[in-house]
Design a protein that fits this description.
single chain, 257 residues, alpha+beta, SH3 type barrels, 3 domains, 4-stranded antiparallel β-sheet, 8 strands, 49% helix, rod-shaped
Length: 257
């Protein structure tokens, strides 16, 4: 019996040292504790408010039992394999580039509609066929601008394509002025183009880009044409298939340059 009490004394002594050592360690590291009445335990938190452990009274063994949560927290903390900050910056940059390029397109569209207003001032009104061309232009704008506008290459093609439309619309007003008769100009280049036989040769004073596709938004530049150019076929009012120095491709805009 005496031996048994000696063992109990040693066990209580060791437990007391452990408990007070834990309390001293808690205080030295600026840990705080509070009692959780719902769970009936004392909970310990570090300076950031994270729970690092708790102790609970074990009535079966009449003792306090401490559970260390710090290691568990470290194991459960998720670390993303991706640089989320870098991804966010890239998304923001892409959106900013998209917005800047969209502004460029809007500016060019403003120029085109201003050109159409000037044509109306000169001619008095647009013919039915010209109105159909404007409607066609607007539909093609909606289709063409569905691409990735944050891509500068795509936007450059769109701007060149819009420039060709602008020159085409300008030709309506120039044609009216040169003829000096608004009534006779309603037929302008539409009737003229209907009676043209292909192939034919035209002369370009300035360099014209040759594309590999009749839709400029889908095509890429394959060369330049200047001087005498053989026109093989009329694709649309502003697109023709041509041959120049062995290169067969497409040009956009008026043939009268």
């Amino acid at each position: 019996m005496k031996h048994y009490f000696n063992l109990m004394f040693v066990w209580l002594f060791v437990y007391t040292l452990f408990f007070f050592g834990f309390v001293i360690d808690i205080e030295a590291q600026n840990y705080t504790s509070k009692y959780n009445s719902l769970l009936e335990r004392y909970e310990y938190f570090d300076s950031n408010g994270n729970m690092i452990g708790y102790k609970k009274w074990n009535s079966l063994y009449d003792r306090w039992e401490y559970t260390d949560k710090s290691q568990q927290n470290n194991r459960s903390r998720y670390e993303s394999p991706y640089n989320l900050d870098l991804i966010q910056k890239a998304v923001i940059h892409k959106q900013q580039q998209h917005d800047r390029n969209l502004d460029l397109i809007y500016d060019k569209l403003d120029e085109i509609y201003e050109t159409l207003d000037n044509v109306v001032d000169i001619k008095g009104k647009l013919s039915n066929q010209e109105l159909e061309e404007v409607t066609k232009f607007e539909k093609e704008v909606n289709e063409t601008c569905r691409c990735d506008l944050s891509n500068t290459g795509n936007v450059r093609k769109i701007i060149l394509w819009l420039n060709n439309w602008k020159r085409y619309f300008q030709s309506w007003g120039k044609s009216s002025i040169s003829k000096g008769n608004n009534n006779n100009i309603q037929a302008d280049k539409y009737q003229e183009n209907k009676n043209v036989n292909y192939p034919k040769t035209v002369y370009f004073k300035s360099s014209v880009i040759i594309w590999d596709h009749p839709a400029i938004a889908k095509g890429k530049k394959i060369g330049d044409a200047k001087g005498s150019v053989k026109v093989l076929e009329k694709i649309t009012e502003q697109c023709h298939k041509i041959e120049f120095n062995g290169i067969v491709g497409y040009i956009y805009g008026s043939l009268n340059r």
